[in-house]
Amino acid sequence: MLVAFSVTPLGVGEGVGEIVAEAVRVVRASGLPNRTDAMFTTVEGEWDEVMAVVKAAVDAVAERAPRVSLVVKADVRPGVTGALDTKVETVERYLAGE
Questions:
Q1: Which domains, from first to last, does the chain contain?
Q2: pTM of the full structure
């Protein structure tokens, strides 16, 4: 499965990058395939392992913020691996006219 999620600390002022970095650090340490962009971090793996990473990322932010907002979007396709890259590659092929 792919899970795209965004963790936002609330009640800590406008500059949240340092705290959000704690969530990304948890994801990267998980060893699961992942990618972070300006809006979301996407993680690929099995349901239980991905959801455990999301929880750990939220917990890391909650250690430094009185409130946490979490947005989650999931693509659940049992047996599919490598979707983090192949979904983008497919769109790029279409854009290239293949």
A1: 2-95 (3.30.70.930)
A2: 0.90
